[in-house]
Amino acid sequence: MLPRQLSKTFFNLLIICLLLLNSSCTKPNFYEKKFLVYGTILEFKFFQTPKNIADEAMANIIAQLNELNSIFHPWQNTVINQFNNNQIAKICDDRQIQIIYRAYHYEKLTNGFFNPAIGALIEAWGFHTDEVVEKIPDDALIDKIINSRPSLKQLNLNKGCLEKVNPFLQIDLGGMIKGYALDLAKDVYQKLNIKNVLTNFGGNIYAHGHPETRFWEVAIQDPYDQTQLLAKLKLPPGSAIGTSGNYEKYFINNGKRYSHLINPTNGSAFSNHSSATVFIDPQDEVGFKSDVFSKPFYFSSNLKQTQLNMNFNSFFVTDLNRNIFITESMLEKIEWIFEEGKYFVQGI
Fold first, then answer.
1. β partners of residue 335
2. Whole-angstrom Cα distance, residue 214 to residue 192?
3. CB-hemisphere CA count at 13 Å for 338?
4. CA separation for the pair 219, 19 (Å, rounded)
């Protein structure tokens, strides 16, 4: 994710793997490249795309991501860091304001479960660092932040500049940036007339076109065993998939796993769910939605109610007791490949 330079251990954690149906990326029609961006892997698989055009697309996408990182990294010397740590600081750049307003749109759409204003909570838990530091914050501090109800709605637009009214409000766009990157990639592909490419940014995957007459296929690794696969599914052109889970950036204290995913409603870094995966049908901002829509289900204490609140039907959730809760819509798309008896699958 954009602001966070994930530790090296990230690469040993659950990542959605990419597979090509009955084909190999070493064949002449395929061109594959991987980059390390913000501490996670950005992977491209092009089909029947001239190398020079593919290279131009990748360079364009990475340049845009580097620019965003120089603005929104929350603990380096950036615009957002200065804004977060200075009550009188302002944000006056039109594009930066538009990105923040877009984030607020999704904060409202997810009923606050995706909340880019809780940077202070993330910092309190010790996740605003390049390496994970085990840190259980003081309850009084968490209460102060939660009671201030941080939200991007606490930003005022005054004479073309954003000002904050809540001193505990700190902007952290890490929960949306991988998805936003996929939408940037989609725009680049359309401008360059690229027809078929699969883009994977740390497990958020966008399918642009398809290889030959088949769909791209993705396989989801077992969250408890990185050497095993949990399931696989096919991605129609224009669709995306994304996962949030407690296996990316975390520490364990007294046998309890605390993740960089902080619940905005109670300030806790603990969840009874280990992961939440969403499938997004082809639509506008498909990448953005693949990133932010998983958060409400990861934090949810009532999946059915959250499903109704979100009016969203294609997802599944794994919990800490090896249960998988899945909607009928998602069940129709997925093929389980885990060892029999390892998980208990039930409908929502």
1. 232
2. 23
3. 19
4. 7
Of 313, 321, 322, the closest CA to residue 348 belongs to 313
Q: Are 149 and 265 in contact (CB under 8 A)?
A: no
Q: How many CB atoms lie under 10 A from the CB of residue 273?
A: 22
| Single-letter amino acid code for the residue at 201 | F
Nearest-angstrom CA–CA distance, 173 and 209 = 28
Compute the distance between CA of residue 286 and CA of residue 116 in angstroms, rounded to an integer: 19
Please, are residues 184 and 61 in contact by the beta-carbon 8 Å criterion?
yes
Q: How far apart are CA 214 and CA 29, in angstroms?
A: 14
Q: What is the pLDDT of residues 240-251, one digit of tens each?
A: 999 999 988 899
- CA torsion 141→115→9→268, rounded to 10°? 40
What's the pLDDT score for residue 141?
A: 97
- The percent helix, strand, coil of the chain (3-state, each to 5) is 30, 30, 40
| Cα atoms in the Cβ-side hemisphere of radius 13 Å centred on 180 | 19
Amino acid residing at 304: K
Task: Return the exposure string of 288-306: e unless at least 16 CB atoms fall within 10 Å of the residue's CB, then b.
Answer: bbbbbbbbbbbbbeebeeb
Which sign, positive or negative, has the C-alpha torsion 134, 320, 43, 312?
negative
What pLDDT digit, counting tens, does each position of 125-171 carry? Answer: 999 998 888 889 999 999 999 999 999 999 999 999 999 999 999 99
> What's the CA gap between 253 and 262, in Å, rounded?
16
Quote the pLDDT of residue 248: 82
